[in-house]
């Protein structure tokens, strides 16, 4: 059951409530299957994996936000894409009594941190169900990503975080 947030918290009482977590969208592609399975077994070349991370926030009402964490995992073997897994993990958060800067930090760091374990599980399942070896995403420091995003905004840069392994 969703917990309600008082739209007018008394004395600027700070409230932060996770109301719902859900999978908004997921996709998996293995564009070079079945040949890629033979390529993976017959080569010593290591697959190159990259992860694009992003998030969006939508105001649902005065105190409620939908935050969507987007993860796109791409695995390349040589010049061929082995697989591409994309997940949009969403949550509904009640946020009240915070200043704009604090709320921005909650949406940019706390909310993605809460959603990440769910998205990581979906990615792992998609990769395994696609016939590939298990892949477990390493933890992500969303506090550091948020700080870097704020630094880039202050200096006029614009980029989407990408993690490579």
Question: Key terms for this structure?
Answer:
five-stranded antiparallel β-sheet; 165 residues; alpha+beta; Bacterial Protein-export protein SecB; 3 helices; elongated
CATH homologous superfamily label: SecB-like
Give the topology string: H per helix, E per strand: EHEEEHHE
Reported for the largest beta sheet, the result is: 5 strands, antiparallel
**CATH topology (level 3) name:** Bacterial Protein-export protein SecB
The CATH class label is Alpha Beta
Structural class label: alpha+beta
Binned strand content: 35-45%
Strands, count? 5
Counted up, domains total 1
Architecture in CATH? Answer: Roll
Low-confidence stretches: none
Shape: elongated
Mean pLDDT across residues: 89
Strand order of the largest sheet: 1-4-3-2-5
Quick description:
The chain is an alpha+beta fold. The protein is built from three helices and five strands, in the order E-H-E-E-E-H-H-E. The chain has helices at 35-41, 100-129, 142-155, and strands at residues 15-29, 48-59, 64-77, 80-96, 162-164.
Describe the structure.
The protein is of the alpha+beta class. It has a single domain (13-154), classed as Roll (Bacterial Protein-export protein SecB). 31% of the residues lie in helices and 37% in strands. The chain is built from three helices and five strands, in the order βαβββααβ. Strands 1-4-3-2-5 form a five-stranded antiparallel beta sheet. A hairpin with a 2-residue loop joins β3 and β4 (80-96). The model has no long low-confidence stretch (mean pLDDT 89).
């Amino acid at each position: 059951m969703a917990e309600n947030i008082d739209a007018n918290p008394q004395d600027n009482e700070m409230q932060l409530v996770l109301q719902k977590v859900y999978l908004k969208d997921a996709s998996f592609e293995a564009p070079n299957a079945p040949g890629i399975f033979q390529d993976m077994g017959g080569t010593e070349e290591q697959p190159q994996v990259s992860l694009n991370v992003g998030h969006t926030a939508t105001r649902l009402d005065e105190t409620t936000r939908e935050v969507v964490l987007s993860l796109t995992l791409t695995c390349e073997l040589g010049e061929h894409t082995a697989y591409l897994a994309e997940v949009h993990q969403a949550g509904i958060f009640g946020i009240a009594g915070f200043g704009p800067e604090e709320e921005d930090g909650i949406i940019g760091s706390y909310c993605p941190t809460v959603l990440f374990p769910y998205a990581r599980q979906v990615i792992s399942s998609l990769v395994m169900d696609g016939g590939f070896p298990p892949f477990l995403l390493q933890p992500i420091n969303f506090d550091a990503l948020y700080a870097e995003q704020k630094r880039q905004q202050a200096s006029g840069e614009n980029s989407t975080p990408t993690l490579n392994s």
